[in-house]
Design a protein that fits this description.
Structural class of chain A: alpha+beta
Largest interface: A-B, 44 and 44 residues
Order of helices and strands of chain A: EEHEEEE
Oligomer: homodimer
Number of strands of chain A: 6
Shape of chain A: globular
Mean pLDDT of chain A: 94
Radius of gyration of chain A: 15 Å
Amino acid sequence: MEEKKAFQDYYPELLSHCYGCGRLNEQGHQIKTRWDGEESVTTFLPESYHTAIPGFVYGGLLASLIDCHSTGTAAAAMYRSEGRSMDTEPAFRFVTGSLHVNYLRPTPVGVPLEIRGQVKEIKGKKVVITSSVTANGEVCATGEVVAVQMPDTMLPK
Amino acid sequence: MEEKKAFQDYYPELLSHCYGCGRLNEQGHQIKTRWDGEESVTTFLPESYHTAIPGFVYGGLLASLIDCHSTGTAAAAMYRSEGRSMDTEPAFRFVTGSLHVNYLRPTPVGVPLEIRGQVKEIKGKKVVITSSVTANGEVCATGEVVAVQMPDTMLPK
């Protein structure tokens, strides 16, 4: 059953300033990720200036979308694995341990991108998320992110 | 001997609209990369809103910097390998085949980041670049990019 609120809408206020996914970062991308069955989905329309070369989307943006999509999915997956909804305590928040992106073909600008994630592995404080970026029905990039629970030392004072 | 112009200053005009490194992309990062002996160097000061959580730099930005730093270094390395300066024809321009980033520690905001690249391998149309991102003298992330010569099909018409 799909939830209406996005994963990112449950992030605590102090942790909602991320340039990629923070709902309080006015300059940022503010991506929204939701479950679609066993997969997580983010839809994003790049800005006209997010170009690599004219006509194609900047690879760094794709990496950024994969990154935040995956850390969000990791958090949601941990709640699911505990049978808890995302508004219960303690809150899960993940940071990126490693990010890998394969660019398969040029990604066209001007169309919405769909990022789909799968939970590959949950092991202790670590969640591995694989994902794909699709434009016009074609997979343009794939990603794998190792997400780790945010250490307390990173919490804003 | 260090060159004064950056690698990106030699990119043909049509290929200078990249969000990460295009000198003609007014909304972009416009990074500048130069040789320092056998290594390539980019210095970049993130904006205040390029945050992951407050106080730390957004990982997607680091991935973006590593990406463009590496494709620029790949192009410069190909010229070097042919004993040519970057203002000679034919022009080399690289796109990213794959990007890998390891995040080693949180990257502080408010200080310049130094990205240093090494040419790991040149093989045909492919160049592998390894790199590190340093803040306050500490390596915060490392990267490996497989850069491939841009196919003609990507050239703007």
